[in-house]
Task: structure prediction
Amino acid sequence: MKLTLGTPPVEVYGVYDTGSELVWTQCAPCPSCTVLKFPMFDPFKSRTYNKIYCNSVQCNEYFVSCSPQSLCAYYYFYYDSSITSGVIASDIASFISTDGEIRIKDFLFGCGHNDHLRFSDGNIMGIIGFDQGPLSLVSQIGNRFGGRRFTQCLVSPYVDNHIAGTINFGANIEAFGGRVVTTPLITRQSTPHYFVILKGVSVGNNFLPFNPTQQQSEGYMMLDSGTPSTLLPLELYNMLVQELRLQVGEESIEYHLEYTRSICFRSTQFPQGPILTFHFEGADVELMPSQTYFTIQEGVFCFGMHGVTQEPYVFGNLAQSSLLIRFDLDRRTISFQPTDCTKL
Result:
């Protein structure tokens, strides 16, 4: 996602992330940061840049750290071991929407002076946090679009990588036509993440409950666009893999990837099935093979889900691709609609 910061404006390219709050970018000076293909934001060159001091209202309300220069400081650690640390500042932010340019004065963001991005290829300068926390982009935009709601449509990784996904603020998902299913947005333990209730997963017509060996018949899933894989309770995942092996009918192998083992299949063509259905409360969401498998080499297709022994359980961005998803923070709902995101 692209936005601009400062005066004169500097383009910032960040990962759209519904699983975190802070909007941050690498800032000069940053001698140990990931090497970028674009000029990083230099606060000394922006006429509208403002430092946030430790004794300010903003710092006392959202942060507790303080730099040696008495500036409001932050430190973030991500699931993939990426880190960022720096200072909180404010400046003018702007981005392009379907309604034209949107400008936000006194936009609070993280200016990272010590960052390590494991996911960056040199094009990514930071993270665009989109959860429900007060510092996220959607929260700082507020009600200027008639309410706190937005839609996302993530493009499948199997189409032209020059085609971008879309994010619309205030959009009405029903206006796009087609079948829409809706599930409640759950508030949990005062966390700002987007949680929904999952009752189970069907492989074809075979239903697998969320937690088959315990009385807990349903559980919480977090929608996180920043996590590639879907993370499921280990027992559910093991049953899912067992059922996949039966239904796919191809040779299965295990690959040791960077963080975990993945179940993979050898095949001369992309897997044709089965369809997986995630049974959220009041909303059945079907996932096609292009939303559940990824390719690691020619003829080898790996299952894009993993089993974990503890929360959070995550509905990741591969599963979210080719779905128009509306997050309505006012009505406390999340809606899903199968969509060719390349045509929006």
User: Anything to note?
Assistant: The two ends are 16 Å apart (CA to CA). The chain has a mean pLDDT of 89.
